[in-house]
Amino acid sequence: MRDYSIGVDEAGRGPVIGPLIVCAMSIPAEDYPILKEMGVRDSKILSKGKRESIYKLIIEQAVERNWGMGIIVCEPSRIDNNRSSSNLNELEVDLFSEAIINSIDNYESGSIFLDACDVDQERFGSKVRLKLGSEWSEWKIFSEHAMDSSNSLVAASSIVAKVTRDDAMQKLSNEIGLDLGSGYPSDPKTRSSMKRLVSGKKPHDCLRWTWSTVERAWTDLHGTPVPIRHENNEISSQTDIRHWIEGNHK
């Protein structure tokens, strides 16, 4: 039986606008050199153009070599609803586990590499293992901070997650008719869009209502606390990379 590896990373943990994306990629361990040949490295140190060109190569190889890919799109509503009873670290345990399960089928053992989201990297790995359950007991789990800098498979997952989030932000900007920028509170374009996004009877659905940036903008404009968001754990995911391409990257 071939030795398989799964690498998992996320994009969009801190923004006030848009979804949180988690990507898990599964490949035969023998295919690692292909990632290095493509120039795969941590998405944060790549230019936008370079990241997108490598992303296209990853998708091409994923289709050609039948690599597995689980992409989870966690919308702001789920993030907000989760904060009423838990925290972002616990949500990411759920999301990483969902992505892993979607990334591979019918393989009994292998290695899973996580870019840990918790300050305690070992605790994060233990929680993901617990969430995956006994069916994954034969898999080894390695959980480290900045794993996208040391493991090319995790780096590839980070690239897919980042490009997927960038595409989601561009789509939101087009739909709303306003340049939302990156969605991070430090981005001037994002900050300048806040007044319009909170000008209605409720904050716009693309916002994370429980973020302090939204709370301040809403209170400054309306003089009242932000409304409570009705429960809607919206989430989308994919397990067939061809379907993902057809639906998102025509």
If classified by CATH, what would the architecture of the largest domain be? 2-Layer Sandwich
In the CATH hierarchy, the third-tier topology of the largest domain is known as: Nucleotidyltransferase, domain 5
Query: What's the rounded overall pLDDT mean?
Result: 92
Task: Supply the helix-strand structural class.
Answer: alpha/beta
**Total DSSP helices:** 10
Distance between the termini: 35 Å
CATH top level of the largest domain? Answer: Alpha Beta
**Secondary structure: helix percent:** 40-55%
- What is the assigned CATH homologous superfamily of the largest domain? Ribonuclease H-like superfamily/Ribonuclease H
Largest sheet, order of strands side by side?
A: 5-4-1-2-3-6
Number of domains: 2
Shape: globular
Number of separate strands = 6
Low-pLDDT regions:
none
Sheet-strand content, in percent, reads 15-25%
Radius of gyration equals 18 Å
> What is the makeup of the main sheet?
6 strands, mixed
Walk me through what this model shows:
With 250 residues, the chain is of the alpha/beta class. The protein has 2 domains: 4-166 and 231-244, 2-Layer Sandwich (Nucleotidyltransferase, domain 5), CATH 3.30.420; 171-222, Arc Repressor Mutant, subunit A. It is 47% helix and 16% strand. The chain contains 10 helices and 6 strands; from the N terminus they run ββααβααβαβααααβα. The protein has helices spanning 32-37, 48-65, 76-83, 88-103, 121-132, 147-150, 152-176, 188-197, 212-222, 241-248; strands spanning 4-11, 20-28, 68-74, 110-115, 139-144, 235-238. The protein has a 6-stranded mixed β-sheet with strand order 5-4-1-2-3-6. Helix 2 (48-65) packs across helix 7 and helix 4 (88-103) packs across helix 5. It is globular, with a radius of gyration of 18 Å. The relative contact order is 0.21.
